[in-house]
Amino acid sequence: MSGFGSSVPAAAVCGTGLALCGLNGLFFMDTEPALLLVSGWLAVSAAMAGGWVLRWRKSERRRLLRESPLDGWLLAGPFVLAALYGLTLLAAKALSVQATFEAVLGWAFYGVVGVAVYLAAGEKGGRRLLETGWLAVGGLLAVTGLAAVYGLLPLPGAVLRTADREIAAAGARLGGLLQYPNAYGAVMAAFLLERLVRLAGWSAVDFSRERRWRGYRAAAWALLYALCLLLSESRGAFAALLIGWAAGCALLRGPARRRYVLHSGVIVAAGAALARQLAAAQLAPAPLPGLLALAAVLAAALLLAGLAARWREVRS
């Protein structure tokens, strides 16, 4: 696939990710904007798939599938689930026709977006654009969520408030643009884990002007993601993060593993300090003192992150 060819699906995926932030993460499939987005993706994907089938010779398709069979099976997963839901509809055994039909659309949508990501990631330009979109989506979710907490952005539904301590220990949970704390926490856990793995692969030079201070930028985002995750109070997201973190620790080796552990400790400790303060205020702190505390803890965390990246050089 050419650079231009990979940038088109990458741009579509990035735009869709940003759009989903405003659609509650597609939690409600029966709204008009959600149906338009899903239908548009499915229609365009069907047309492109038909063109691909007509253009490529049978032998070339077989060769492509033979070269990457595992990729093909993984990409086919969502479509298999969509087909199973479709069979349930045809057999007239669905408990809810509308919910089952929405499941068919949803899994087919996840499948075509997954294929688009796969195609875009095949080229350097597409991968770069996907990374930009990834950071944009994560940044939008984290910044808007915290802006709602600190009273900078009126965002109805961003904070779930309840007197039931079994639902929210602090009396409030952060759901951000998704308006659903469990889903929001899971998404923030994924973004946090990605930043921690990225930080593990960077050395002291990435915390310098030579690399445009990208290490500090990554650490700052990691702290915001960790704070949002803690404020969501999602135990399922905590468990998923721990499993993912353990897998990362097992796969990394040498200095990368050391940096991974050190950066994780710094980020989680800083996030916990801020989360405790915000929880005491039931996620409604006084704006100025709250922002000053955020800035102070962020500065301290960035300083410690820089020291963590240099720890091996100092020891040697």
TrEMBL record:
<feature type="transmembrane region" description="Helical">
    <location>
        <begin position="34"/>
        <end position="54"/>
    </location>
</feature>
<keyword id="KW-1133">Transmembrane helix</keyword>
<feature type="transmembrane region" description="Helical">
    <location>
        <begin position="104"/>
        <end position="121"/>
    </location>
</feature>
<feature type="transmembrane region" description="Helical">
    <location>
        <begin position="291"/>
        <end position="311"/>
    </location>
</feature>
<protein>
    <submittedName>
        <fullName>Uncharacterized protein</fullName>
    </submittedName>
</protein>
<feature type="transmembrane region" description="Helical">
    <location>
        <begin position="7"/>
        <end position="28"/>
    </location>
</feature>
<feature type="transmembrane region" description="Helical">
    <location>
        <begin position="133"/>
        <end position="153"/>
    </location>
</feature>
<feature type="transmembrane region" description="Helical">
    <location>
        <begin position="215"/>
        <end position="232"/>
    </location>
</feature>
<keyword id="KW-0472">Membrane</keyword>
<feature type="transmembrane region" description="Helical">
    <location>
        <begin position="74"/>
        <end position="92"/>
    </location>
</feature>
<feature type="transmembrane region" description="Helical">
    <location>
        <begin position="261"/>
        <end position="279"/>
    </location>
</feature>
<keyword id="KW-0812">Transmembrane</keyword>
<feature type="transmembrane region" description="Helical">
    <location>
        <begin position="238"/>
        <end position="254"/>
    </location>
</feature>
